[in-house]
Amino acid sequence: MIRILKYGEVANADIFARAVPEVNVEDIVTDIIKNVRANGDKALLEYTEKFDKAKLSSLIVTKEEIDEAVASVDEKFIEILKNAAANIRKFHEKQVRTSFIINDENGIVTGQKIIPVDRAGLYVPGGTAAYPSTVLMDSIPAKIAGCKEVVMVTPPMQNGRVNPVILAAASIAGVDTIVKVGGAQAIAALAYGTESVPKVDKIVGPGNAFVAEAKKQVYGVVSIDMIAGPSEILIVADSASNPSHVAADLLSQAEHDKMASAVLVTDSPDLAKKVQAELEVQIPKLERSEIARVSIDNNGKIIVADSLDAAIEISNEIAPEHLELCVDNPFDYLDAIRHAGSIFMGRNCPEALGDYYAGPNHTLPTSGTAKFSSPLSVDDFVKKTQYTYYTKDALRKVARDVEYFATKEGLTAHAKSAVIRIEG
């Protein structure tokens, strides 16, 4: 059963605390990466047979497989995927930045170019559930940014095929290449390339502890979006909130993973007790009740705060991945929220809207990293290059200043490179 605590009975850092896995993930991942670098496709095929129980002759999903998958998915879901994709495009198109140029001084031009990365790698989890939403959320911003190629990796089912809904979403999103491989080995393949898997410049997408560790280890060879931890939700709710709605929203994250965390912060002791009871009613009815049970019992918490303002401050200290404001006038509190991955406003905005449909991205910072990082966006798929131009006359006006500055840093060659052009 979820615990009810008075704020102050648990440290901020412990609110989303989770048990540390006993498996030595770091060493296992290091060995996998070494093997993939040395043996390429051969290693990928062996790992896929070992971990996914799928014996493959080819790693690349064919056009025929994609067409068959799309045809097998019901028309209603295809239409919903298209609607969700449209919402995601509409939101992310507003994020596109433009290059700029400054030439308001005679003989001087400075500027910045916005350039997409050439090739983006997208990891889509398989395993316990299929996530077509991840395909849309992670590939559409890359396409809007202008990436020449989006390469998706995802573990196959035991029959050697990729889940049809994953392929349908990839088709709608415009993914260019789809590879049947998952786990740390997929991250290694994207980072270093193999005979079948092209080397990418950026890797994005969620995964288990092995995927997260692999992204950590290849960072620097390629860019990554973030090191994402298990899912988490924090709900700030007042006494007028519906306990069954709040419990359902907590469980929407608890069902993800036994390591997921669901936290309610409220100024109402009565609501706290009612939500605690409602969770016990709803958990047994879930298809993933075993996962939700462990998540709620081990990682779930209800914290009773002195006021809603205090609840907001608690939330800011925790910096949750998902923050729900279950209050009548959520926009009154929006300016007070400094740290959250994504905010869901009001009583009619369950976090699930953000997972699938509304448009804002669902790849979000976890484990308190919302204090200094942001949701996945078009910005993740571009880089900036700056440039400078001076005429000789313009340089002559500032060369001695540059010389003096460089000399103060003890870099006389820097100084000489500026003044040599105006001397003699």
Q: Helix and strand layout, with pairings?
A:
Blueprint: E1 3-6, H1 25-39, H2 41-52, H3 63-72, H4 75-93, E2 100-105, E3 108-116, E4 119-123, H5 132-145, E5 149-154, H6 164-173, E6 177-180, H7 183-192, E7 202-204, H8 209-218, E8 223-224, E9 232-237, H9 243-254, E10 261-266, H10 269-282, H11 289-299, E11 301-304, H12 308-318, E12 322-326, E13 342-345, H13 351-356, E14 382-390, H14 392-408, H15 412-419
Helix pairs in contact: 1-2, 1-7, 1-8, 3-6, 4-5, 4-6, 5-6, 7-8, 9-10, 14-15
TL;DR of this structure?
The protein is of the alpha/beta class.
Q: What profile does the largest beta sheet have?
A: 6 strands, parallel
- In one word, what is the shape? globular
Mean pLDDT: 95
- The radius of gyration over CA amounts to 25 Å
Structural key phrases:
alpha/beta, single chain, 14 strands, 424 residues, 6-stranded parallel beta sheet, 5-stranded parallel beta sheet, 17% strand, 15 helices
What would you say this structure looks like, in words?
By secondary structure, this protein is an alpha/beta fold. Helix content is 42%, strand content 17%. It has helices at residues 25-39, 41-52, 63-72, 75-93, 132-145, 164-173, 183-192, 209-218, 243-254, 269-282, 289-299, 308-318, 351-356, 392-408, 412-419, and strands spanning 3-6, 100-105, 108-116, 119-123, 149-154, 177-180, 202-204, 223-224, 232-237, 261-266, 301-304, 322-326, 342-345, 382-390. The chain has a 6-stranded parallel β-sheet with strand order 1-11-10-9-12-13, with helices on both faces. Helix 1 crosses helix 8 (209-218). The longest helix is centred in the first third of the chain and has 19 residues, at 75-93. The protein is globular.
